[in-house]
Write a structure and sequence with these properties.
Elements lengths: L1 H12 L16 E2 L5 E2 L34 H10 L3 H13 L1 H14 L4 E7 L5 E6 L3 H8 L5 E5 L4 H15 L3 E7 L2 E6 L3 H5 L13 E4 L11 H4 L28 E4 L2 E4 L2 E5 L3 E5 L5 E5 L8 E2 L4 E4 L8 H11 L4 E9 H12 L2
Parallel strand pairs: 4-5, 7-8, 11-16
Antiparallel strand pairs: 1-2, 3-4, 6-7, 9-10, 10-11, 12-13, 13-14, 15-16
Length: 360
Amino acid sequence: MRLAALLVMTLVAACATAPSGDTDVPAGAKVESSGYATILAAPPAPYTPPPRMLAGYEAPLPPGEVRLPSDDVEVLHYRWERGISLAQARADVARWRADGPEARRLEARLKTAEPNNFVELGAQRAPVLAWKFSFKREPERTLRRYSSNPRFVAASVAFTQAEADALWSEWWPKLEPYATYGGRGTEGVSIGMKMTEAEFRALRGFEGFNPPPGVKLDFPKEPELPRATPDAARFLRIFPQQRYFPGIIPTGGRVYRGDARIVLRDGCLFLGNALVRLNRTMGLFRDAQGYLALRDRADLLQPYLRIGERISGGGGYSEPVDEATRRWMTSHCGDHPIIDLYSPASVVNQEEFNRSQYSP
């Protein structure tokens, strides 16, 4: 209850009293007799896509180095990752692959001979690519009892998979209501939380909570930019946002086509006849040309969206609308359906961004 009250107050605080006799009107806006704005259409913002974010295997080769037909993605990425010559990367990967059959045979032997000590076989990337054998106790001594291959390396880990599974079974049900995702492995259990640490510790029963050894809680942080800048918030009655951080968002959410737009009617955000609630990391601001706009404060590489321009995306994550939120929104903006939009995007500029980042 304390958390709900805190967040509702935060949402209310994002909105200011309507301007009176204000001449600083946002571009394309009409200020109603209430003092709040109406915006039904806007052009997309001028936009220059950022430089393409190259994957490691796409990085250009230094002068004088030539790719061979046998240099696959793994070789190219390893060269970029380590900052070494292509010839050295080629030799390291070839040697690692050649050791593979021996490593797999040793893995099978260790599972039988060291069932309570051997944990897993993996790859060590640096200082050189090697097969890594992980143990709970005496890793180097144990490995050398079974192999003298100097290219096999030993590592120590905290948990077997069975131990991590048991830890997960105990703690995930307790923390799931406050989490967005989780996983377990040789380092124990990691759980991604859907609220900040301060909000979590304000919950009844978790004020002094410290997770046990092997359980790590990953808390999101509120982005540094404000949820709503004062020069934009005063033209809106409310700026509704979801309560929680969403964590991992599946791709392929709902796509709006045609003339779908987020518009502002007398200070309220609408999509069609539905009131709009945005994800927690979105922010409201005035852009350089004076338009009211929305941006994802957690990902500023993404192009922002002006209120009134055509949108795409917006699906992938929604939350139940509790009765207090419904009353708050409808008391300011009328009795309408409520729709969640997660990071809605500019049709024009998102296409430009996608072409710049993902086209060959």
